[in-house]
Every structure is written in C-alpha cells, then in structure tokens.
Amino acid sequence: MKILVVGANGQIGKHLVRFIQDSKDHTARAMIRNPEQAAYFKELGAETVQVDLEGEIEDIAKAAEGVDAMVFTAGSGPHTGKDKTIMVDLDGAVKTIEAAKQAGVNRYVMVSSFDTTREAIQAAPESFAPYVAAKHYADEWLRATDLDYTIVHPGALTNNPGTGQVQAAAKVERGEVSREDVAAVLFGVLENDTTIGKEFQVIGGSVTIQEALKKI
C-alpha cells in the first residue's frame, strides 16, 4: 500500500512515515510545504511531494495520484490565529477529502481532536473553541462522504516515547497519549479494515494497539 501522509513534517506525521517505511508491505509519500523539509524523509527512503495545504484542491489531488490511502495529520498549531485554524484544520482538511475523491483514493484516515461534539465547542476555552469547531465541521464533511474513512480522536498529546499500549473506544476518559503512539495507532488503522466507517478516542493505556483496534 502506498500512503500519502498530509502534514508529514509534523511530529505525528514524521513518526507515521517512519512506521510506514519500516514496514515490509507499505511505502509513504510525504506531503510537505517547503523543500528543506525533504531531507528527513529522503533518509527514510520515502517519496516526497511539495504542496501547500492552503493551495488548490487540484494540486493536492495530483499529489495523491497513485496512492492507496491518505492520512490527514496536519494542524495549524497552538501558536497561530483563528485564520490559520480555519485555513488548515477546516479548509485544508476538506480540500484533502475532495482531493481524495478526485484522485480515486477511497481510504482516508483523519486525525481529529479528542471531542468534536457541539457540546465540546461550547465548553471549550475561548482560545481553543475555534480549533474544536474547525475539527467538528471537518469531521462532519468526512462522515458525509462515501470514502472508507476512519476518524481518530487522540487525547492530550505529549512527546513522551511511545509504549505501544493504549486505551481506545468510542468514549474514554480524558487523558494523555504520546504522539508516537498516535502515529502507531494510525498505522494500525491502515492495516485493519475493520476500522473503516468508525471513529474512536484514544489515550495511553495498558492494551496493545493491535488488540485495542480489534475491539473498536
């Protein structure tokens, strides 16, 4: 399977590309914004494609030609304004969904926020609410498609080393999860077709990722 990783230069994206490249059966195509970001992925033997997520759907669709799956790991980051949140976390996500349709890529995995319900938007702090709202509508857009989608809702992200063990279900208590473990979950999702059409929350836990995904 060839997998297009959108937001590959982010921390989750980098881990995911490494997991893909370390596998025997899959290869990654890393979608990056700047050419200087390519070196990391070339060292892993991964293909790169330079596309600005704030550009045109057609450019993203061209980047997705010939791939079997697309994973959206991009994010505007905590230090940007509401404008970037809309342009990346909402508009960027929707454009990749539409690009997947254009390119004939049926498998699509979305990294969302832990809770993107309407209630979560209302309960979020003022500074965080735009991000939750953006993710809410991006998730809704994906659910309304015929794509073979999976939506992953990670808890509070940390840079701790991955343990390979998580807790995953439709609803779990809030908690932390390492970015490396989130990437491992994404890789597991791509290898597990039983996750198609499903979404789940994930935090650190005591169950192996493989076993956790079997129970989703």
Automatic annotation (TrEMBL):
It comes from the Bacteria. Pfam families: NAD_binding_10 (PF13460). Residues 7-192 form the NAD(P)-binding domain. This is SDR family oxidoreductase.
